[in-house]
Amino acid sequence: MRQFALSLILLIAVSWFPAGTLAFEAEEEAWFGPEDSAQVLRIISTADIAFIAPMITSFLSAEPDSAIHYTVAGSTEVQRAIVDEGAGFDVVISSAMDLQTKLANDGWASPHLSEVTSTLPPWAVWNDMLFAFTQEPAAIVVSTTGLNGLPLPQTRNDLINLLRQHPEVFRGRTGTYDVRQSGLGYLFATQDARASEVYWRLTEVMGGLDARLYCCSSHMIDAVKSGELLIAYNVLGSYAINRDDRDEFAIILPEDFTTVMLRTALITRNAPSPELSRRFIDHLLAASHGSSAIPLTHPALDLDRVDPSLNRIQVGPGLLVFLDQLKRRSFLSEWASAMFQN
Q1: Whether residue 63 is found in the same domain as residue 149
Q2: By CB count within 10 A, which of 21, 99, 124, 292 is most buried?
Q3: Burial per residue of 13-50, b for 16 or more beta-carbon CB atoms within 10 angstroms, e otherwise
Q4: Which of 10, 97, 8 has the alpha carbon at shortest distance from 319?
Q5: No. of helices (H) and no. of strands (E), the chain
Q6: Structural domain boundaries, residue 177
Q7: What's the number of CA atoms in the CB half-sphere (13 Å) around residue 46?
Q8: With the C-alpha atoms ordered 271, 126, 138, 184, is the resulting torsion angle positive or negative?
Q9: Contact 67, 31 (CB under 8 A)
């Protein structure tokens, strides 16, 4: 009961700061814990505050004299803050695994070894610098009312056939990431293209139907709920399943292959609070991988049911291939040709 009460107090203690005071573009900021704390952990992250708040409050319940200053930014802005501006953050959390790998590979991360990190499965750690604490699938989100009896697509080929057979229904009402702007969207797109040529056929079909492009999963889900979209492709399943209004749309993990992103964390090489950073990383990993895990995703999002088709993105230098400027320009040019056909 005491721990619950403390967590509640910490959540109420969140205060907001103006993003305009920062050189990079921050979307939101929040303060958790005592305002006059001498120990402050500064985190920059692509994860929404509501998504990560349970983990933060559980950490602070064991660190009552500490506070966390949490900043939300897009994946490219995270890179800008760390690499271009040298902003004083301790921990970086991101869904853009390729950009996180580049940070670690280029020397922006500090190694961390502990009893907790030594027990991680091989897919969850890279070079003792990059640590995965969630597995989050890319899903197809479909309006449960807008299809009016049309079948729910279970594979990408199902989705292609549905769109081709009913262009009048879906014109202007399908959505996906703008991969030119979204680091996660670009990661999902390149991994899809690696896995199957069907990705390019789907992109061409969606482009021919004037697909709408979005920065992030939450905006796509909102658009499905409002009726602006009937189908959103490559939405983060974790964002969809955790919404209170999730009964209003179907969340489909494609049966041909389900791409799974690993949300990762690293400690910066010049972390102002290195010891607090290490304790936070250990808490994050123990809580996520341990037997008494704090769920950051809903149990209904069960990866076991798509295990044969699971395409877990592997942390490591292989992710740097599509960050090469020539390869990136080539991929984006092909994507634009498929998506913009007018």
Answers
A1: no
A2: 99
A3: bbeeeeeeebebebeebbbbbbeebeebbbbbbbbbbe
A4: 97
A5: 12, 13
A6: 136-260+303-339
A7: 29
A8: positive
A9: yes
- 237 inside domain: yes
| Residue 294, in any domain of the structure | no
Q: Give every CB contact of residue 235 below 8 A, 6+ residues apart in sequence.
A: 138, 139, 140, 141, 217, 220, 221
254-307 pLDDT per residue, tens: 999 999 889 999 999 999 999 999 999 999 998 887 544 444 555 555 555 556
Q: How far is CA 277 from CA 41, 93, 104, 237, 342, in A?
A: 7, 12, 16, 28, 50
Residue 13, pLDDT score = 39
Tell me, yes or no, whether 221 and 154 share the same domain: yes
Nearest-angstrom CA–CA distance, 177 and 173: 14
Strands 125-126 and 91-94: unpaired
Same domain, 209 and 146: yes
What phi, psi does 3 have (nearest 5°)? -65, -40
